[in-house]
Amino acid sequence: MQQIYADVAAFGNAAQYDEVITAERRILDVTVSLSEIVYDIDGHGRVCDVVRRFMLTPQQAVDMFQGASSLPPKLVDMAEKQDRTKYAFFHRVGKNSMYSKGKLGPAGKAWFSRYSCEIDCTLIRVSGYDDMPFYAPRWDVDTGHIYGTGPAFNALASARVHNRMTDATIRAAQRAADPTILAPDKGDWPLNGLIQPGKVVYGAINPMNGQTMLRPLDVTGGFNLTLQERQNVMEEIRDAFHYSLMSLSGRTGMTATEVMAITEERQRLWAPHQGRLQEEYLAPKFARRFQLLFKAGQLRPPPPGLAGKELRVTYRSAAAAAQRSTEGNVALRILQDIAPLAQMSPEAAQRLADRLDPDGTLEVLMDARGAPARMMRSREDADARAQARAEAQQQIQQMQAMQQGAGVIKDMAGAEAALAGAQGGVA
């Protein structure tokens, strides 16, 4: 993953493929060097034809194509002789024009696969895939073009200028550390033009008048100006890679609003490129990986309620996330703005409380921050809990009322008994 994203950032293109190794019961993911691969796209901009050229020794080829009787005999002989020469092999994957669903063998695969070798132009293996195993994500693509461009392409001119400036700086530093020596005559310099630290240079001073016979070439230039220009070029390169937005180092005292604004800007700049990477790399790779694992029995069967139903995976793009983040910031600003209004009078506070929907406000903020769904209960569940809490509170109040009523009845009965006793004594 590190290599494929580095290639996308540097070259605007990357290539990767996955292969099922049946003998090892594993799936191999390989990021391919861009120097090994060429590909074509269909009318919708999707990769439809891939040719990869890679180098193998004879022994590596025998190990890779175990059981392939179509290997060139010459290659097998070289493997037995431990020949370490590398030869070119080719792997082509494309749409199968003879595809027929339900057939056995390569004819029943939507994508054909052919391995060949440069030795005697030998076709080694013919097979197929249900899904395209190669992925070619691109950073930015012009309409009608096959290959894309990356941030490094935008910074290429500035990078070349920076390299030239670095060369000039190194030459200036070298000239200052080892300056050119001016001498009147080669015969006046017994060391043949070599000056060594800590050594004596004979003939460097005129014995008659003490005049220095040797002196360095005085070269002055705007060295500080060169350093400033290099810094400006470095800023241009960083801006091409969105470094100023991706890094918050050295920024202190930032408020929460400033951090959210920078996060929104990051998401807006990253959104179109992330959408392309999701479409051309992440989505097809995850879909193919799910199919491979499901066919291999490595995933649990679906619950009975989902049997025969299609699965739909919903994800949020960077553009949608940026939009949601903006809505969350607007909601927070509104809450900050109405806080002084609520302090005007109790009637104003009650009116604002009547206008605002707490559930809706919470859902907007949760959605804007991208909080996981399991973090928040549904409105129905919250209403049920509130109703159960109200019923429990009502039962407690009823019990308290009954206890108070029982105490009153008991007191009345005692008072009546006391009154009757007092009347009997009088009689």
Protein model, in words:
With 427 residues, the protein is α+β, with helices and mostly antiparallel strands. The chain contains twelve helices and ten strands. It has helices at 2-11, 58-64, 73-80, 151-154, 156-177, 223-240, 243-246, 256-295, 318-342, 346-355, 358-369, 379-426; strands at residues 16-21, 26-31, 37-41, 47-56, 87-95, 111-117, 122-129, 134-135, 181-182, 215-216. It has a five-stranded antiparallel β-sheet. Helix 8 runs antiparallel to helix 9 and helix 9 (318-342) packs antiparallel against helix 11. The longest helix is centred in the last third of the chain and has 48 residues, at 379-426. It is flat, with a radius of gyration of 40 Å.
Beta percentage is 5-15%
Number of beta-strand segments: 10
Estimate the global geometry from the Cα principal axes.
Answer: flat
Separation of the first and last Cα atoms: 107 Å
Structural class, please?
Answer: alpha+beta
Question: What secondary-structure arrangement, pairings included, does this model have?
Answer:
Layout lengths: L1 H10 L4 E6 L4 E6 L5 E5 L5 E10 L1 H7 L8 H8 L6 E9 L15 E7 L4 E8 L4 E2 L15 H4 L1 H22 L3 E2 L32 E2 L6 H18 L2 H4 L9 H40 L22 H25 L3 H10 L2 H12 L9 H48 L1
Antiparallel strand pairs: 1-2, 1-8, 3-4, 4-5, 5-6, 6-7, 9-10
Summed up:
It contains 12 helices and 10 strands. The chain has 427 residues and is α+β, with helices and mostly antiparallel strands.
